[in-house]
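Try this one yourself first.
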């Protein structure tokens, strides 16, 4: 690998540093393909390795989505547009979502609480027939193209919906007798056995579209309960099901069933086929009650710091809703327009989602650096950077770079997916100058990690500049 890197390496620094960077990257697993671009405050390239090649970016995709959100949405005012609503239609009650990612049904909820809507219904009537979950604010695109289907049962691949509750996940606990218990939403196929010692080794499996969840593995007898978090296939249904529970708790009799309303994806949801025809939505009756979530700024902070996939994909839909139908295609159009303003080469990116779960996503180091340099000059640039994990301090970088010269001096978005690692952002070099960088690694064998090699290279570049 060392001989492959040498012809591609441009390093405007000391020869010793060039050799150090080359050696650092060569320590990645055999077969790894690495792209790296580092520029100084004037845009001068300090290191360029495959800077124009395209890579699977994993969660570096969130950089592009959150930049579009900062650029197009009001992130500082209370999020009235995104809050869930409830209305009464005849004898039915309709819970509608509008893209808010933070709606909660937790017993200790203090903000953006579903129980508040249940109390509003209870003040109006003591009996309803059907409880309907309505997520028609966005077209029904619950999973991105190119996401591995085996991710669907887990929390990282849970479905995306305009009506989102409790991060669209459910929990199951397994106690020291091997007994699993949930909240009743999923049927449980219990296959856990107890052992005389060791550590719990628990897993779960569920076919897409099925409500049968198999709980598997082993747990030591008498062990403290272990909580498993699983994804939801139909978030609107789950939200309506939970709302029915809260209505009953508020003294409202539910005599009917739980139903959903989805909006099928059509050619009108794609600007390529819709053309300039405006997206028309029929007017809705005034809601009985509406929630007003906190400003989006806090959610953007969470999205990048902990790399929250669902929230990122909802932000893409929110951006798309402001511009068109709320579809992925409309969101992609907004991101493309943003990158055009940033001067990113069009050959340097393609996206299928807003989170990075899709293996169809591609970016080049040059496209990422172009976005980062342009974003830093925008009025929202400082707020955007504040959402990035900080090396050795917080988020997904809490342990990386700890105890090194880049601790608390590197601000970057991480990314990890099958055979893909990414890190792009800003670092403060030894000179005090702020360098902008993007490091992308793909094709590691056996899903090995290339992060150690990338970190060594960035440390060497920071020390020499």
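Now uncover the answer:
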């Amino acid at each position: 690998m060392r001989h492959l890197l040498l012809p591609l390496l441009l390093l405007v620094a000391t020869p010793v540093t060039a050799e150090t960077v080359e050696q650092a990257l060569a320590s990645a697993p055999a077969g790894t393909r690495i792209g790296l671009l580092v520029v100084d405050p004037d845009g001068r390239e300090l290191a360029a390795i495959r800077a124009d090649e395209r890579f699977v970016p994993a969660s570096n995709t969130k950089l592009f989505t959150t930049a579009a959100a900062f650029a197009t949405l009001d992130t500082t005012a209370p999020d009235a547009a995104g809050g869930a609503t409830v209305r009464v239609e005849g004898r039915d009650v309709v819970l509608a979502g509008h893209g808010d990612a933070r709606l909660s049904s937790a017993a200790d909820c203090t903000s953006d609480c579903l129980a508040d809507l249940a109390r509003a219904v209870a003040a109006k009537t003591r009996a309803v027939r059907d409880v309907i979950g309505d997520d028609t604010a966005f077209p029904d695109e619950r999973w991105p193209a190119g996401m591995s289907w085996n991710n669907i049962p887990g929390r990282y691949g849970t479905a995306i919906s305009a009506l989102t509750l409790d991060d669209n996940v459910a929990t199951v606990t397994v106690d020291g007798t091997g007994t699993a218990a949930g909240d009743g939403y999923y049927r449980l196929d219990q296959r856990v056995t107890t052992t005389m010692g060791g550590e719990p080794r628990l897993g779960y499996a569920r076919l897409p579209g099925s409500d049968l969840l198999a709980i598997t593995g082993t747990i030591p007898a008498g062990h403290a309960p272990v909580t498993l978090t699983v994804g939801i296939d139909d978030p609107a249904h789950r939200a309506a099901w939970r709302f029915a529970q809260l209505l009953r708790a508020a003294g409202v009799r539910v005599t009917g069933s739980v139903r959903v309303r989805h909006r099928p994806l059509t050619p009108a949801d794609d600007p390529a086929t819709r053309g300039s025809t405006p997206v028309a939505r029929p007017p809705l009756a005034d809601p009985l009650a509406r929630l007003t979530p906190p400003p989006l700024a806090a959610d953007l902070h969470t999205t990048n710091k902990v790399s929250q996939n669902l929230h990122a994909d909802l932000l893409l839909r929110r951006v798309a809703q402001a511009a068109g139908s709320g579809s992925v295609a409309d969101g992609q159009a907004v991101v493309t327009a943003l990158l055009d303003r940033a001067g990113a080469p069009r050959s340097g990116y393609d996206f299928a989602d807003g989170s990075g779960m899709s293996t169809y996503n591609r970016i080049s180091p040059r496209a990422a650096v172009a976005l980062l340099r342009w974003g830093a000059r925008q009025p929202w640039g400082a707020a955007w950077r504040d959402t990035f994990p900080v090396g050795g301090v917080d988020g997904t970088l809490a342990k990386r770079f700890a105890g090194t010269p880049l601790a608390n001096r590197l601000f970057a978005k991480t990314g990890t997916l099958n055979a893909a690692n990414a890190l792009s952002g800003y670092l403060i070099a030894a000179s005090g100058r702020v360098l902008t960088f993007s490091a992308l690694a793909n094709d590691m064998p056996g899903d090995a990690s290339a992060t150690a090699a990338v970190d060594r290279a960035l440390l060497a570049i920071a020390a020499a500049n």
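Discussion: Residues 87 and 149 are 35 Å apart (CA to CA). The chain has twelve helices and 21 strands.
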